[in-house]
Sequence to fold (193 residues):
Amino acid sequence: IGSEPDSPSLLIKVDAEAGSQGWTRVNRSAGVGAFTELGLTFNPPQANTLSEVILSALNMMQLIPGDEIGLVLPAFQGSDRCVTFNSPTEDFPFDTVCWTSKEFRFVLRVAITVPRLTDLHIVIPTSVGVSLPIAGLTKDDSSMTISANATFGNVVSTSILNSPAVGVVYSSSLSFEPDDAGQPSKIALKFVL
Fold:
């Protein structure tokens, strides 16, 4: 779940032959970051289309200026690009969002402090220039991940297991029987998703 550096909630107890010690606060500890309640949505949710990427998460560690959140979205498309935002807000606390096409990765640089346990609802705008995959997406695709390089606790690559399916039709056909105008017909539609 994550833990702040030098967290007062970390305790240790020793039961040993040489002597016991009751519960005592750990003096020094590294931060351990985490995100929970992860979800991704897209607007519009359409394959091979420029789309907003909407990330929902609960940060279990404080984020401060200079921290970075990474978001890996395999098969998404777009040219390498960084977009600067001049007025970070509580809703969008980043000053730079970069997309690296070779790694299918967004990097969002934090510009203002985000308190621990903030419900994040981050909308990466279409101006960043990233499109959903040509082949669409499967529901809850575990290859989409989040990570963080954060002062109060890094987050290792973690699957985002709450995302919609985005379909695409590869092949379709429409037939009529009989195919005579003005007559009742049986219509057959075939397609492959």
Observations:
- The longest strand covers residues 35-43.
- The mean pLDDT is 90.
- The chain has no helices and 13 strands.
- The two ends are 38 Å apart (CA to CA).
